[in-house]
Amino acid sequence: MSEDQISPDRMVGRRLEALPDEVVAGLEVRDAWRRRTAAGTAELEFLVSDLARWRPGATVRVAFLDGDDELHGRIVEATRQITDVANLTLDFGRDDATGRCRRWTESDTEYAAEIRVSFDEGGFWSLVGTDSTDATISPPEGGVGGRPHQRSLNLGGFTEELPDDWQGTVRHEFLHALAFHHEHQNMRGDCENEFRWDDDEGYVPTRNSRGVFIADPSGRRPGIYTYLAGAPNFWPRAKVDHNLRRREGDEVIAGPFHPDSIMLYAFEPFFYKSTPSPCAPTGNGIDLSDNDRRGLQLIYPHTAQQVDDLASRAGQALETWRKDIGLESLGSDRPSPYADRVEELLAARSV
């Protein structure tokens, strides 16, 4: 097997997202707290299942840190496939006369926008849904997180050159920003069992000149854990699990597994156990699939009855929250910041 058959260039080096470790750690602690808090309280199922999504019908502001007006305009156009379907407005603050969109800065103390886009970090990634305004998930000194001065969505390198599939990348990341997770982590799919997590038996660790793990002289291949531990990623096992393993639990909004989804990665063939793999994408990676559109309609419905039902559920959860849990202090004299955030999100959905 040649080095080209296990290459980081098409896959990991360009499309596989990875948030900073400190943000991932903050998310995991926050999510564990939410699960514990809602456990055994039927009315609070809403707490862990729906808080990631924005309120249907809401206007979600978007702002740019860097990049020029032409680039911003192209991103606005690429997101129209999303807003044409979802009952939600992405407001870029665009001036029709000048073509200029809303901006944010790293010195902001108030939110210029709920989604804060940058182009200066490495790779493509986004926080999921309302995490982009959750100050509890990130330290204040970091450049990525849910605070007003932090990036919540990044399209690395777009200011230098647009990749061939740039529209698909924009749509993929903005779907994350609207609460979509990766399709390969869908608990109703079988990618968990289809991925080659471990090395071929007897594999002798072998790297190419760039430090990338490749097949050894006998043709035995590295597994996903070994491959991603090498250049250019250097991911520990926990980071691989967070980005690739199946996501389960009440906090995950998941429909049936759809291989045509724009949220499914095109991994290298050696990642899979079978050829062709049932986890390999069948979509073009640029346009939303019919199933992506149905997902948007489900999460952000248009009918008044569906919107009212969601508001009613939020209202019931808020009532239970205030009665039974809202005064929890986690051993201090002040309420937990996690509790404050839940109160804020439930109240916004109850209107």
Written account of the structure:
The protein has a 5-stranded mixed sheet, with helices on one face. Mean pLDDT is 86; it is low at 1-15 and 250-254. It has 351 residues and is mainly alpha-helical. It has helices at residues 21-38, 45-49, 69-78, 80-83, 166-177, 191-194, 224-229, 237-244, 290-299, 304-325, 337-349, and strands spanning 59-64, 89-91, 115-118, 124-126, 153-155. The protein is built from 11 helices and 5 strands.
Which structural category do the helix and sheet elements fall into? mainly alpha
Query: What's the CATH architecture of the domain at 21-183?
Result: 3-Layer(aba) Sandwich
* Number of helical segments with 4 or more residues: 11
Q: Quick one: overall form?
A: globular
- Topology, number of strands: 5
Q: Low-confidence spans: pLDDT under 50, at least 5 residues?
A: 1-15, 250-254
Mean pLDDT figure: 86
Distance between the terminal alpha carbons, to the nearest Å?
A: 59 Å
Q: H/E order of the elements?
A: HHEHHEEEEHHHHHHH
Q: In what range is the share of β-strand residues?
A: 5-15%
Biggest sheet descriptor: 5 strands, mixed
CATH class of the domain at 21-183 equals Alpha Beta
Q: Walk across the major sheet and give the strand order.
A: 2-1-3-5-4
**Helical amount:** 25-40%
Say which CATH homologous superfamily of the domain at 21-183 is assigned: Collagenase (Catalytic Domain)
Radius of gyration: 21 Å
